[in-house]
Amino acid sequence: MKNKHIINLGIQIVPKSKNLDSYALVDKAIEVIQNSGVNHVVTPFETVMEGEQEELMKIAMDAQEAVLAAGADEVLIYYRMQIRKNKDVYIVDKTGKYQ
């Protein structure tokens, strides 16, 4: 049975291009995440999303494709996930006290 709990997925996309600005390419990935409607936090090194794993992995794949479609020659993608067996994982539980 698949875990249907809320998880956190951190994604760092590092685009490689000989001609295009890497920040502009990363912006394409962030745009996909923002348009998805999932709760997320953009940081200088990665974007952390909150939702069901299957949904977040689809968004991550869409973000990857957006960077390639925008002209990246290749992308390096790093994922980090926090998944609990019987409990949801919320971003605010970890960082809310700092806001």
Describe the structure.
This protein is α+β, with helices and mostly antiparallel strands and 99 residues long. The chain has one domain: Alpha-Beta Plaits (2-Layer Sandwich). Helix content is 37%, strand content 30%. The chain is built from 3 helices and 4 strands, in the order βαββαβα. Strands 2-3-1-4 form a 4-stranded antiparallel beta sheet. Helix 1 runs antiparallel to helix 2.
CATH class: Alpha Beta
Number of strands: 4
Helix content: 25-40%
How large is the count of helical segments? Answer: 3
How many separate domains make up the residues? 1
Mean pLDDT: 96
List key phrases describing it.
single chain; 99 residues; alpha+beta; Alpha-Beta Plaits; four-stranded antiparallel β-sheet; 3 helices; 4 strands; 37% helix; 30% strand; elongated; UPF0045_domain; MTH1187/YkoF-like; Thiamine_BP
